[in-house]
Amino acid sequence: MEIRKLKLDELNRASVDEFKEQDKLPVAVILDNVRSMHNIGSIFRTSDGFAVEQICLCGITAQPPHREIEKTALGATLSVNWTYHETTLEAVEKLRTEGYQIIAVEQAQNSTMLNKFTPAPTQKYALIFGNEVNGVSDEVMQKIDACIEIPQFGTKHSFNIVVSAGIVLWDFFAKLVVG
């Protein structure tokens, strides 16, 4: 069997307009005071890859257009719908009124390990990813419906936020779309 790397024109990627019209993963990503513009851009790119519904940028989280975000987003700020909220609580309350289940991705007492979590196919989810140092803020943790934790087995205490977003979004995509 011959294995050949595909050329860009063979990937059949959607245009931005086609992407805007296609079915989306029923997930909103909430960024709770994320500091690094490279992390923000990478999460835009990952969110594009899994066709999430939207990203909510909150607090100190920078907003496009910005060249530091674009370095890693590679244009995904144009395809993925996004909004800015002065506080993460504002985004949480807005999404709750729109029927989203609010889930923090955090190491917490009584969290559910990601591999044990089964998303319901008819439910919309808002996944909160926290600040690179402090995680999801304590005030936001008071307002969540559930908490998911990524199992870890090494000596470090956490994954980079972009890695966490990639793991969790793939898991939701695999369970809801791939089946």
Highest CATH level, the class: Alpha Beta
Distance between the termini: 28 Å
Report the β-strand fraction as a percent range. Answer: 15-25%
Biggest sheet statistics: 7 strands, parallel
**Widest sheet: strand order?**
3-2-1-6-4-7-5
User: CATH superfamily membership, which one?
Assistant: SPOUT methyltransferase, trefoil knot domain
Rounded to an integer in angstroms, the radius of gyration calculated over CA atoms is 16 Å
Q: Could you report the average pLDDT, rounded to the nearest whole number?
A: 97
CATH topology: the name is Alpha/beta knot
Q: What is the global morphology?
A: globular
Per DSSP E runs of 2 or more residues, the count of β-strands stands at 7
Number of domains: 1
Output the helix-strand order. HEHEHHEHEEEHEH
What is the annotated CATH architecture?
A: 3-Layer(aba) Sandwich
Q: Please report the number of helical segments.
A: 7
Structural class: alpha/beta
Describe the protein.
This protein has 179 residues and is of the alpha/beta class. The protein has a single domain (22-178), classed as Alpha/beta knot (3-Layer(aba) Sandwich), CATH 3.40.1280.10. The protein has 7 helices and 7 strands. It has a 7-stranded parallel beta sheet with strand order 3-2-1-6-4-7-5, sandwiched between helices. The two termini are 28 Å apart. The mean pLDDT is 97.
